Amino acid sequence: MLRRSVSLSLLLFAVSLVGCSGGEDADTLEAILPQKEALSVGMAGDTPADISRYLLASGASAPQLSPDGQDVVFRSSITGTPQLWTLPVAGGAPRQLTFGNGVTFARWMPDSSGILYGADNNGDEQESYLFISRDGSSEREIFSATQGGFRSLGDIGSDNDSLFLASTERTGLHYDIYQGSISSGDLQLIFEGNYGNFARALSPDGRYLVVTETVGEDSDYLYLLDTTTRELRVVSQPESRANHGDGGFAWSPDSQTLYMSSNTDREFAAVVAYDVIDGRFESLVESEFDLADVQLCGENGAFLVWTENRNGFDVLGGRHLASGSSIAFPAIPEGVYSLSCSQQSSTLIVGVNGWQTPGDIHAIDLLGGVGKPLVDSNLAGIQVESLVRPESITMVARDGVELQGLLYLPLGGDQASPPPVIFEVHGGPTAQSRASFDPVSQYHVARGIAVFKPNVRGSTGFGRTYVKLDDQKQRLDSVRDLVDMLDFFKTDGRVDAFRAAVSGGSYGGYMVNAVLANYPSAFAAGVSRYGVADWVTALQVASPALKASDRIEYGDIRDPKWRAFYTVNSPIRQADKIRVPVLYSHGVMDPRIDIYETEVMVRTLRANGIEAPYIKVPDEGHGWRKLGNRLFYYRRQAEFLEAHLGIRD
Q1: Count of C-beta atoms within a 10 Å radius of residue 344
Q2: Coil, strand, or helix at residue 540?
Q3: pLDDT score for 149
Q4: How far apart, in Å, are the Cα atoms of 28 and each of 32, 528, 610?
Q5: Alpha helix segments (H runs only) across 574-626
Q6: How much of the chain, in percent, has pLDDT values that exceed 70?
Q7: For FRET with 154, which of 115, 393, 604, 622 sits at 20 to 30 Å CA-CA?
Q8: pLDDT computed for residue 43 by the predictor
Q9: Which helix or strand (DSSP H or E) is residue 492 part of?
Q10: Phi, then psi, of 247 in degrees rounded to 5
Q11: Mean pLDDT over residues 438-448, rounded?
């Protein structure tokens, strides 16, 4: 099992101000920059623990079983940046495999001889592709990063040389499909795309490549690309938007059946099978919840497995394909699961990220139904019984739409004096607040602040209708949901809704900006991390991965109608209405949202006499990957929120 240790020699950033101290002009803006300082972690077992211990709590993510079923590769940030580690399924010590730039993805070679992985530069999302041998003794770059080349790996052929990927390097905007050679580093364009066409799973015989075309952030069209003739065959183009790709793809060994999850013609994603010969779909497993992460495991694809998302908590599902009988799974910790398996082994690898589990890995024998832990999370001296399980809460918006969220309440609270609350809004917008490990929320709860994670309309996980309720001009309805949820808590009584802050990153940062501008008296403070402020600019300069879906989700910004709508309804033009303190932050390398949007918000609030501290992180992109930056930033965020919610030591 993997064990972690906390080093007191780790470094934390300290505050350094840059810019003018006596007023700001067009070229200078006072910001907080990082400097190194000694890290103080307190003592193991302290209650509440220092915030650094929550951030140092660590585990494994994105585990993948080797095709021969012998080893697992996973990502871990224990060194401060995401790196690859390997671990034998039979047991033994984990071994660090990579040591360079932060790793963005990994994929085993079909013969298990090594791993193809991606790495970018400080979060700029423009990856180079590299190969490293299984034992880590040799490594080489396959494709260098290119300016404007946003890539997305599809699959690797059974010849252990050919690979298929999508990239924007031809135009800087449209994703095309390429076939490459791992041995030579050659890359050949085989299909010219328009906006978001992505390579996915290659059939075992190498004939068909699954291709998805983005249709909004929650939906897609499905195709098969003949790798020889380069003809594109339509598999599914439903008139009513649907999703085929989020649950992954699994080919049968004979290349005649493609398994996936899809919500075509239904509210929730079901496990379906597509017959390549007759071109028909068959529904195999349906539920009142979304099914995802479809895997075909074991010799000749004997086992079909999947996950079921029940209000943010995953449940394992599976069946023997020959008999149709269900698979019995052993108990594993609660949370969000990621699955991996091989058709040369009956082992299922389950990555667990749960409310008290930063990243476990479990191996389950699908033949015997017996499991064993391979990697145990390390809680960095935090007492496990101090961590809080979130409760699924539902309420009704003013227009009758049922809303949902996850509520974290401090342990042993006094009903006569309910705690203040932080609304932590997810990004996306097509995402979902789930029961994964959230060190910052757990710290706030340990300090006596409740945390509520709202799934406003437009969130995934609650049906196909719900996810469309914030499209285009309905977007402001989702902003209003935050106020309706807050009003619910004013009568519910579990939290003090009159001492409430709102926080979020990326699209969640937009929600913070928007709700504070449109409902100035609702929240007492805000935290906006690398959030959208100007939709006109954001939709114009968005990275290609976002442009592929933005036209449907938000409207085409080239159309004067939408330009006029977002000119009026962007927080950057409403910032003078904000009346409460807001903490802003942004990464200089952000390829998704221009840093100027955050800086205009800061300038406007400060000009109006509103407190608006600004943390500027030079070596990060869209979010904080590096441990040092996380340790620095979240300590300051916690101090800001506690000061404005009345929490005192």
Answers
A1: 16
A2: helix
A3: 78
A4: 13, 20, 18
A5: 595-607
A6: 92
A7: 622
A8: 83
A9: helix 475-492
A10: -90, 5
A11: 96
